[in-house]
Amino acid sequence: MPNPLILDEIVRRALQEDLGLAGDLTSNAVIPPGIRLEARLVARQPGVIAGVEAASLAFRTLDPGAEIRVAVPDGGLADAGATLVDVRGDARALLTAERTALNLLCHLSGVATATRGLVDAVAGTRSRIVCTRKTTPGLRALEKQAVRLGGGHNHRFGLGDGILVKDNHIAAAGGIAPAVERVRAAVGHMVKVEVEVDSLDQLATVLALPVDAVLLDNMPPDLLRRAVAMVDGRMVTEASGTVGPKTVRAVAETGVDIISAGWITHSAPILDIGMDV
């Protein structure tokens, strides 16, 4: 569960964006004040559910007295046609919050479902599926929670969580060795250091340096397997680059510790969920 203050800010910002300056012209014109309404959030397709707390908060923000019953909580599996949430409250408020609630619920459930697909595909191997910083601006905390709900794990939450020396850092620093030397001089002993490489020659350089993890970028499985053998357990190995449902198993079978996929947060298809009054 994300920090409640973060969740509240995300939901309020989304509602404010939708309401604008004039509010919900349609609901306010069509529905007389004081009308009560009962509705269900229903999955149109099967998947892993995420975003129930966010959707519920959208309704409660506009109607603090809304009665909400959660049938499938965050992290639960839903079949097509399953009721996820029952909500009863002020009709205007529920219809005004509907799109914000569904936007969050559909997107986050899509992230969780996509993650579960990769996790299931690598079952029985040592590899963990992790997300990246390739997230929707403003939704990182919720998207990373959705990855965990789908059985995956999180990479860095932000630039301040750890060191990842990438190709452009290496180019700017004049090489891997000077980049790592400057990093180690700048950070404390609690900060982990990872370096990105795209060749076995670069990997050989990294193996001689005080590095905790190596990112093996865009390497085909045969090259990944050789890289993992070179590392021989001396540091954490991460594979990244064009990892999808059809390729992830082959990557996992090379023996890498971590497989990172940016698309599960920034491009996962939504899970189709609707609100039925």
TrEMBL record:
EC number: 2.4.2.19
UniProt domain Quinolinate phosphoribosyl transferase N-terminal: residue ranges: 24-109
Pfam families linked to this entry: QRPTase_C, QRPTase_N
CDD domains for this protein: QPRTase
Function in brief: Involved in the catabolism of quinolinic acid (QA).
Family: Belongs to the NadC/ModD family.
Protein name in UniProt: nicotinate-nucleotide diphosphorylase (carboxylating)
Native organism: Azospirillum oleiclasticum
Native organism taxonomy: Bacteria, Pseudomonadati, Pseudomonadota, Alphaproteobacteria, Rhodospirillales
